[in-house]
Amino acid sequence: MSSKSVDRRAQPRIVAEERWQTSLTSIEPNMIQVRGYPLDEIMGRIGFAEAVYLLLMGELPTPTIGRMLNAVLVSSIDHGVTPPSTLAARNVATSGAPLKDCVAAGILAFGPHHGGDIESCMRFLDRGLTLVRGGKSMQQAAEAIVAECVASKETPPGFGHRYHTRDPRAARLFQMALELEVEGEHVRLIRAAERALAAHKADFDRPLPVNVDGAIAAICADLGFAYELGNALFLISRLPGLIAHAHEERTRQAPMRQIDPKDHDYDGARSRRLPEGRN
Amino acid sequence: MSSKSVDRRAQPRIVAEERWQTSLTSIEPNMIQVRGYPLDEIMGRIGFAEAVYLLLMGELPTPTIGRMLNAVLVSSIDHGVTPPSTLAARNVATSGAPLKDCVAAGILAFGPHHGGDIESCMRFLDRGLTLVRGGKSMQQAAEAIVAECVASKETPPGFGHRYHTRDPRAARLFQMALELEVEGEHVRLIRAAERALAAHKADFDRPLPVNVDGAIAAICADLGFAYELGNALFLISRLPGLIAHAHEERTRQAPMRQIDPKDHDYDGARSRRLPEGRN
Amino acid sequence: MSSKSVDRRAQPRIVAEERWQTSLTSIEPNMIQVRGYPLDEIMGRIGFAEAVYLLLMGELPTPTIGRMLNAVLVSSIDHGVTPPSTLAARNVATSGAPLKDCVAAGILAFGPHHGGDIESCMRFLDRGLTLVRGGKSMQQAAEAIVAECVASKETPPGFGHRYHTRDPRAARLFQMALELEVEGEHVRLIRAAERALAAHKADFDRPLPVNVDGAIAAICADLGFAYELGNALFLISRLPGLIAHAHEERTRQAPMRQIDPKDHDYDGARSRRLPEGRN
Amino acid sequence: MSSKSVDRRAQPRIVAEERWQTSLTSIEPNMIQVRGYPLDEIMGRIGFAEAVYLLLMGELPTPTIGRMLNAVLVSSIDHGVTPPSTLAARNVATSGAPLKDCVAAGILAFGPHHGGDIESCMRFLDRGLTLVRGGKSMQQAAEAIVAECVASKETPPGFGHRYHTRDPRAARLFQMALELEVEGEHVRLIRAAERALAAHKADFDRPLPVNVDGAIAAICADLGFAYELGNALFLISRLPGLIAHAHEERTRQAPMRQIDPKDHDYDGARSRRLPEGRN
Hints:
The structure is a homotetramer.
Chain A: E1 9-10, E2 20-22, E3 25-28, E4 31-34, E5 37-38, H1 39-42, H2 48-57, H3 63-75, H4 84-93, H5 99-108, H6 117-133, H7 138-151, H8 168-179, H9 185-198, H10 212-223, H11 227-252, E6 264-266
Antiparallel strand pairs in A: 3-4, 4-5
């Protein structure tokens, strides 16, 4: 551009300059503190799941909550090739795009019908607990919120699965919440809602047990997570799955292939059990 | 569309139909197996970091490797508001977009200069180890690969930090690798390269100790991770940070603000220490 | 993986196989037809804006609608460095990520407060037109929907601008809609709403003329676009802006810089006019 | 957070404050100037494709270049449901995610093998033109760069198509470049390379005529576009296709379906021709 045609103008400041605050992490030369704890001091002393809790909730979890959160994060780590998020990631991978692009595309598929159910279920349960605060029994509240869904012909969020008739992950999460004594009113309400729903069997074309999203929703609500952080736990949990599929697609398949989610086989490790004594 | 104008044509199959394979996770009714292990059985029995290793590497980690991996994942969980990934996530958040969109945008900023360094550093170290296989000593190999960078006036990947003069996370990772006895030739080579680089102090305008990316690169290479999975560990580690910042932006700041990375203060928890006995 | 441990299992088909339909583009060997028109035949014979209309709406636009749509697409092509989408794109660019990643991050920032206003405004106007169908006059309907927003202390979607007190793009779009005789009831209603809003001046801290989003919303609604396609026109319009900023960041600025939206100047071409006789 | 535990600290400025420049668009109250032209003045006076050129290249295109660019942008507007970008967008759409998320995921699939070919082809041609500057004839240069690809058993970028044996879009673009007299040395070189490649028919398992990416690459290089802006034109061109498919998926298909790219039919408008007298 010739200097003659140039017109150097300070662009106006649209918003008045003012300082803003963050309460997550402070940075000083050679010192990083997460929620007040020196990062290098917590490394090796708390696990990743506990560090996630610290960062999102502001305080260290108790060891019990740490165990519960580890189980929540493990529960959704992968679900094979057919979820839309996995297929989005694989379709980006087949174009030769870098791993992070595949993963970002996968995350975008965590829409209302896939992962987003956790937040919806947390809100669904809180509607019920408002009824409990107003004097209804847990079972009455469960029946009321279930009836609302039945009336509008909607599956309540957190119930049923497009493939499983009984979700083994939900069962295990509830069992752990019981054993670890972290079960609270959200878990009790969702179990009550499951019973209420069974009475409406005729209204739905498939069984509707609590699914993994519902179990995560109830447990995380009991642990005090904000709605959108409930969904966020699912994101953290599934990220390794998106990475593993994108990496497998990039390293094992020809580029630019047409990915048919139905025509695949599993050829991995045989069914096996954890070794004895493995916690 | 009127039926008259419709032209129903089977669209040709561009690729011959054939079955394809995955070795990650198998799905059967009410049964999910990750690398052969029933998911509900590993929930509560292995931690999330160990499940990440299982999914990405195909086998359970030893408890020692599990501890090392937890430390690696904790090391990069957040670095305040100034990394480009965090600012990308916050700029998406200020538009009112859902949390997952903020996170996806943040992940897209894990470019060559930010996070991508891990893969570059793994390749840098492997070039050195090829020299070792060819007969050079560790220190000679380190000097050779460092000299290459110096000659092209490039900072070797995994060294130096735009803010810290000594990266406390790298020091802690190396200390743990030593104590846990998982140190291997990549760690030894990067320490040798750090020494070699110190001799070239005059060629750079700042100190260049190993940074957290370099430490992760060396340790993950010693653990056998593929190049792009080295970067992937950083993605998993930083995801909670992106979530925390997007959530803070969405809940604490006015929408559509102009985010100036420089004009911020930390107003979170005071500096504190882990309680006694917290492993 | 040793062959002994492998377990080859056909993964179950989650959804029954059935054919599905698309009505957009048909592909045969050496023949691509968009909405029935051979693509190579329309190339050079209709402009890009007209092809966008054909693809999204199913039919060729009249030349008049083609001109209107070109103006709509030009109207939002760029708005300098300060929109959150532009800053998201630039923050991804400074990490060294490829251009497409910057652009994708920018698109994610087209949230409810930025671009998403078009859909909200279309719905706002349709609420008013429902009142008109019910017997109210255009002005009464405008006053009713404006009063609703005032009562809930919300700025109606499509009005006001964080920086401009009068949006020159909106004025030009309305002028063209009038001259091209494509003005319809949505445009008439939004002008009536602008008048109704002026009577509530005391309730807001700034002038609230129709902004470019409001003008696009009204005109696109009059042209028959579906709600989410109204937003989509903004996406198409702004994409070149995102590209230009990402490219400028990548080619003109140092990597890994801290992007302060306030501290920038414009040093481009001086203010100039279209040459005589240009269109 | 209790005030007792708060520790308000100004976070250090990592980079010295300095002003930075942009030459794209200047913003003043009620005045937006793109490359010096008032935006409201060019609206209705230049088409969208011309505005794209102005924004990316800094000057208004000639009417001839405007026509060529319109054809380039129309050429890749859609290619049915099977490209990975389209499938990524549809897989995100089936999760219920908003339109912009589908589109962002689609853009991420414009990887090296899909769209990215344009940049690779521009570089391929510039390697040839360097030989021409060094004294080789156009045909010799073409043979040299083709021979390099043949030797490394790679298809030269911009040649061949996974489905078409002759790309009708490339033929039309070359015809227009000839008629509009914008053909330059890149177009002549790619035609020479096509002839050179035909002599190596035995080395490849399919015909390798210039494809639409190759034609765009050669024409855009002749028009003076930077490498990454060549790819960017493809992004602009295909965005409406991504939007149309995401919208069709969201409005016509059941959510959470398994998208098989092979089992689809076209049921849109019958084959038809442009009306007489249309441009």
